[in-house]
Specification:
Length: 218
């Protein structure tokens, strides 16, 4: 199997703290072909450690695939930590925002990624191709979220944050005006099941007692 640089780096970091490879030997067949543990083998070679292995006759790749199918997958945090250890600046910046704000990964992806689509950004994150093309927007959004939390405890919900991203993209939207309006309408803020419903609610608050043409949010 092709070696994964991120996985190698993660293993190397762990082993340098404590040689955990003793507890997880590689698997080889009767021909001493490595069936599972290529990364562990490579790390041991690099560090000059002895190779700990188990020999299982007639062991094939399909057996290992069955074994791996029942193991725990990496979390997004694991990918972020791994790429940070490799020194990738975007991941280091992203992790610093996670630590500073305490917000969830998908929320931060929604406000810092190019499209606001955290789904596609998650794929990029896992593949080491995370691009935070809207850092300025992200910083503004973080301030907005902080403002909204004074009136609505659900302001850090993903569906609400995505509604704020929509507002950011409306040139005529005035955030200061919205903050003035919400001061005496905060009781209207309730949890909604989706972003569109939040937008309708925010539009009503923003246009309250407005004379003339009202601003549409969607």
């Amino acid at each position: 199997r092709q070696l994964n640089e991120l996985h190698l780096k993660r293993l190397l970091t762990s082993v340098m703290v404590k040689n955990l490879l003793f507890a997880n030997p590689i698997l080889v067949n009767e021909k001493f072909e490595i069936i599972d543990g290529q990364h562990r083998f490579a790390v041991c070679q690099d560090l000059g450690f002895p190779i700990h292995y188990l020999l299982v006759e007639n062991l094939g790749l399909s057996d290992v695939q069955t074994l791996n199918a029942n193991t725990k997958n990496w979390k997004l945090e694991d990918y972020i930590d791994g790429y940070c250890n490799m020194g990738l600046k975007e991941y280091c910046y992203f992790k610093s925002q996670m630590t500073k704000t305490g917000l969830g990964i998908t929320i931060l992806l929604a406000i810092f990624s190019s499209s606001g689509n955290s789904g596609s950004s998650c794929v990029e994150l896992k593949e080491g191709e995370l691009k935070l093309l809207h850092k300025n927007r992200g910083l503004v959004m973080l301030e907005w979220i902080k403002n909204w939390l004074n009136y609505y405890p659900g302001a850090d919900r993903r569906t609400f944050v995505l509604a704020l991203v929509q507002l950011y993209n409306i040139k005529e939207y005035n955030h200061e005006k919205m903050m003035q309006k919400i001061q005496y309408q905060s009781t209207k803020l309730v949890d909604c099941t989706n972003t569109k419903t939040y937008l309708a609610l925010l539009e009503e608050i923003y246009n309250y007692k407005e004379r003339g043409e009202k601003l549409r949010f969607f």
